[in-house]
Amino acid sequence: MSRIEREVLYTQGEVRGEPTMKKKTIDTLQIISISLIWVLFTGIAVWIVNLIKESLRLHDAPDASVGISIVAIPVFFILASVLTYVFFGLRKGRKEEGDR
After folding, report:
1. CB contact burial 31-59 (16+ within 10 A = b; e otherwise)
2. pTM
3. Residue 39: inside a domain, yes or no?
């Protein structure tokens, strides 16, 4: 038996007396992690917008920091979108393999 076959077997059930995590627990933790990514990135975007509003209120001279902030917001949301796309793509692939 090759090393890869042993690893596959190890993830499918109890081997060597070590319990595996239940699928529902893993799914729940994955959903929580992807939700926290969106909460984190949304929080960062709100924080950046508040900083820009505050600098405008104080009549602060716009400089590179405002430009970087404006660019950072879409970058965070694109990153969160890519992570979400990959997450659901992997889940879909896992479900299709389970149907075979």
Report:
1. eeebeebeeebeeebeebeeebeebeeee
2. 0.63
3. yes
Residue 31 lies in a domain: yes
Domain enclosing residue 90, as ranges: 22-99
Q: What does each of the 100 residues of the chain score in pLDDT, given as a tens digit?
A: 555 555 555 555 555 555 567 878 888 888 898 999 999 999 998 998 898 888 888 888 777 777 888 888 899 899 999 989 988 888 777 666 555 5
Asked if the structure places residue 11 within a domain, the reply is no
Q: Which amino acid is at 7?
A: E
Q: Token pair of 78, please?
A: 């694109």
Q: Is residue 58 part of a domain?
A: yes
- Closest by CA to 83, choosing from 13, 35, 15, is 35
